[in-house]
Amino acid sequence: MRSPRPAPAKCAGGDEKSVDQLPRIAPMSNSAAREITLWFLAALTDVAKLSSTIRHGKLLEWIDKAGYACAVGWSRSYCVTAYVGNIRFARSVESGHLVEVNAKLIYTGRSSMHMLCRAAAADPRDGMFTEACSCLVVFVAVDEGGRSRVVPAWEPIDAIDLALADEARPAIGLRSEIEDMMRAQDYIGQSTSTCSLTRFMAAPTDVNWGGKVHGGNAMRWIDETATLCGMAWNGTECVSAYAGGVRFYRPIQIGHLVEVDARLLHTGEQTMHISIHVRSGDLRTLDMQLTTHCLTVLTLLDDHGNVITVRPWLPRTEEDRRLDAHAVELAKVRTKFDGSPLLGRSIEAPM
Q1: pLDDT in tens, 144-164
Q2: Which residues contact 40 (CB under 8 A, 6 or more apart)?
Q3: pTM
Q4: Which candidate, 195, 189, 218, 210, places its Cα nearest to that of 313?
Q5: Closest residue by Cα to residue 263 from 308, 295, 304, 310
Q6: Is 244 helix (H, G, I), strand (E, B) or coil?
Q7: Is the torsion defined by CA of 38, 41, 46, 51 positive or negative?
Q8: Which of helix, strand or coil describes residue 232?
Q9: Which residues lie closer than 8 Å to 324 by C-beta, 6 or more apart?
Q10: H helices within 44-188, ranges in order?
Q11: Can you say how many angstroms the Cα of residue 84 is from the centroid of all Cα atoms in its chain?
Q12: Domains detected in the chain
């Protein structure tokens, strides 16, 4: 016997539509959880203060959310951002543009999930998407006590998956090399370098789904303070071109004091290399603990958006010279990624 036709469903505004006409959402499966894409319009409130373009830190915030959704879908568990690396900014995004953020699982460890994340944008009038940012994000699944937990093993299902997995494995060793290099440096001696420091309280609006500050919010704060440091040195607008080695050591609690410290380490002909440390602590004790450390490369732009020459900075103290050499060495290590699909270059399946 044929089932009766469903009754019309009431929609917003009082219109009636058949249930057959309503959008349908497929249940989440492990196959679907391998990749997720978010679409939305960039809002006027997302733009940088001195321009009409979206702040690069906002792009990282969106990327972290897409990666988190993919990680949770795969692990069926709460996840935390552990590392973000090889962040490449390719173009600016305008307010009102359609934004597409994609997170694709490319490798799993015991409790870690490695995501290739990309953000692209298009004018809604033509729908021509071009890439704005790409990076590698590592999430770790944790239980209710904050301990890491095992995640389902990921296996490649096509040639593109195989190529990405082949890139992800050596990237683990390269990431460890960069982390060790950054961890070996200290920033306690005399310096003549330009520094910028911001302090504020972590607000309830910064919370993630586990009650701590969202990793994407921390990356936005990093980008904003690095930009402040770059502008303090050159006195003109600058934007992030690259960020790497974003290592999250511990979560930031809501209501804690947050301190973001940026310091200029090196200038190239068109670049400024800036190290950023994020610390947080309870206001009652002011025991500030390191939560995040990374390095950002900024460029200067003229009124037409073209990259221009940076005012050179010359290290004067022993620590300045050591950290200047450290920034140069990190740049050399990053060239090992050249030609890698993890830079955002497309991978074509063999014919």
Answers
A1: 888 999 999 999 999 989 988
A2: 98, 99
A3: 0.83
A4: 195
A5: 295
A6: strand
A7: positive
A8: helix
A9: 265, 266, 315
A10: 56-75, 159-183
A11: 6
A12: 28-156 (3.10.129.10), 172-340 (3.10.129.10)
